[in-house]
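@channel sequence for tomorrow's demo:
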Amino acid sequence: MSKKAVDIINRILERNHGIAEITFAAYFYVPQSLTDKGLLKLHRISKPNREKIKHFIQLLLQKKRKRWSLGVTSRVLLKNGEFRHIPQIDFACVKSSTNLRRMIKCLRRFVKIKPGYILESGRSYHYYGARLLDQRQWEIFVGNRLLCNPAGKKPIVDTRWFAYSLRRGFSNLRIAASDSKPEPKIVAKI
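structure tokens (generated this afternoon):
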């Protein structure tokens, strides 16, 4: 199994031949901010393939300003003109073997999107599903993930990240190292 987040993006493209456009996001994360206005710049790649994505990511990383991160958005354009979403989850639980086992168990039981991949993202984890969702399926997916947080206990998923995602109409996960976080690495396949 390859080990980088960009490898997951390439697997999703290979599995879903109908993707005509994928969008990457350069963003500046401001903790506890109520808006991301001016802090998110979208870059679209038409007719994406492995080499085009590799080249594009290298260019963006070279141009990246200090403290900006590079991510991939959930929203993709299909060749038939319809939009779909790559299922994504930003977890809030700390990185540990116990939490990883809990997430794998939870994802196998409640997320029926296979295959899927868990990545270490620094202090926590990310998840990508390889089966695309339409807009309504994506909204249900996001809502159901918010319901995974146990009442009165520390959250499992990042609620602010999901709130930004719902407000924007798409989600976004970091795929490259940033000034303060390592490059996300694959740790499990579901």
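heads up for whoever presents: The chain has a mean pLDDT of 87.
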